[in-house]
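Subgroup meeting minutes
Present: P.N., E.W., G.H.
Scribe: E.W.

1. P.N. recapped why we're keeping a running log of single-chain structure predictions: easier to compare across weeks, and new members can see raw inputs and outputs side by side.
2. G.H. added today's entry (753 aa).
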Amino acid sequence: MSRDLFETAAAVERLPLAARMRPRTLDEYIGQEHIVGKGRLLRRAIQADRLSSVIFFGPPGTGKTTLAQVIANHTKSNFLSLNAVLAGVQQIRDAIASAEQYKKLYGKPTILFVDEVHRWNRAQQDALLPWVENGTVIFIGATTENPFFEVNKALVSRSRVFQLKALTDADLYRTVERCLQDMERGYGKWKVSFTEGALEHLVETAVGDARSLLNALELAVETSTEHWPPPAGTEIIIDMQAAEESIQQKAVLYDKDGDYHYDIISAFIKSIRGSDPDAALYWLARMVRAGESPHFIFRRMLISACEDIGLAEPHALTVVTSAAAAFDRIGLPEGRYHLTHAALYLATCPKSNSSLGFFDALKAVEKEQTEVPNHLKDANRDGEAFGHGEGYLYPHAYRDHWIAQQYLPDELIGRVFYTPGYTGYEEKIRNEVLAKRETQLAAIHEAAEEKKDSFTVEDWQARTEGSSAEILEQIRDTLIGLVNLSADDRVLVYRADGGLLLWPSTRITLNGCTAGIFEHQEALQSALRYAETFEFLNRPIMTVLSSNTRLDEKAVAASENMGTPDGMANLESIVNTNEKSRALFPELAFDVVLSYNPAATANGFAAFFSRIAQEHTAGARILFAFPLPQQGLRLSALLPSDESVNLFAAAEEAFFSDSRNTRTAWTENTVADIAEKAGYRIQLLKKVDYQEKRLITQAELGRWFSAESEYGASIRKAFALEEGVLEKIIQQLEQRCRKPAVYTRTVVYMSVP
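Output recorded in log:
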């Protein structure tokens, strides 16, 4: 049974064309770039032979079985295959016994591929589950049905689901081209050509199904000669008639027990919700033509009458109920009028989903454990005389049968020390909880940056800009929202210290990857510890940027995630490559580049644009944000205006606007000019002022006004002839800063269009 998914070389010539042309390697595989493109999770897992249990879900002919073949050709593990339609209990037992024996002999699991896994009943799926859980087998399932509905939930929860999409026309043309050029498995021995429109007809009619296309191509080619096979070099011309006869128009896809059943009813209800009567009639006709149960259609319209129309038209429920009752009396075919009447009525009604307020109330109940207010408690059960019901006002005793009083409980404020799991309701809130935790980590990192022994203007900027976790969270959400990341994206986070953008990007790019460039080794080590909470193949690729822009040997992290089977043993070659190309990630091409505060100085932005250009970012979406140092808090703004304070304000303004100071004397226009010189056209997306309250300490004031700091030296120079005046200002600030001060952080969001 080992590797029995494939035929022997001797039998290749007897196989259908679709089987002969089945790709054997990732390089031969066509389509599904979103899951097997370079840098994608699945490709890295296959290349590294580190595959965990997976389920391939997609329409027929999209390459599910082919991916299993590719995995079989790459893995060093035992590989078994079963077809759920043909395999009974005994075949399952034989496969498990073989897997157990292999694990005893070699200490490795067996990869078990099950085609059409949704055809197995629940008992058969349950029989496989223990062996997946104990590591005896790595499960690979293929299904045309949604696994979240048709496959055992426990089995799905232990597998990563990859959805395969219908192949594009470009993919199908590549498939035909490869077939016509292949001398061994295809038709490369003969001169096959097409008359105008013939090939286009085959591709368009196949509708993304490579198997259907190859079957039609085989029929067209091998029936266009008197004898098959003809002598090598024979010219074979496929005309439009042959193309039309070789491939038939696909039947309307509809399976009352499958995905199309749910997809079409979903399209019908969404058309009603969107007030499109034409679309509603089309999808209704699709269902009636396919033999869908009218009672099922009416049941869904009854739900829509309350969910989508609601109190905007209170009679909607009555109309649909009456139409359903009339249908039961009349039946088909005339009953189609009543189906149509109800559908058109709902589609043209005004819409309201106010009934969903119930589910908001339900969420509140799930989140809040509150005490019933005493005046609402049942006084009839107050045997212990606790005063239950005291204070309740009986509405019927008042005019209009109403009286104002409290009916909802008081809000509860509590602290929760809790890490959510991966199932049920917890799964829904997990990302939000983790995002907040990661924001805290970013805030801790920012605070640590402020506590340096020697004060520099960067410290001043960090302090005056603020470090509130709430503000960081807003900045993170804005950046992630603007770039609109998808699961398939390959993301580069520049200056990933603190993980503000690194962790949310990692959680989103489940089928792609996220890489982070760090400035400090300490931040990288902290990130490495936190990365252990992610699944191995979902951990970000991380490295630290050393002073000479080379890959620091101690800085490479999780290099196994780069798809290298030897992991850290491959470090030397990566370092050597980097020294030649000055690129940190030579094997990856990125779709997105993200960064918050990519540079602390104007000159730093030139290095930023130069560096990201080295990291295979051609055509990538580049989005970054940074605080404007000139628009941070001025200490002079905290004091009441007088002559000495005005002098202090002028001295501060001179310091921050000094054109010679590349740390502070720059704006968003400066960044745009620097970007243009580097070959980037920059677009300003938005500019936001964030405010927070901060408490300034005497120690900080002493450090800022020290003659050793750039800020202090500049201010003291301005007050050189009035030393005593400056000391009075410092004393005023010490008094003022006993109360929190309002800080402003002006953040600019920019992108490369």
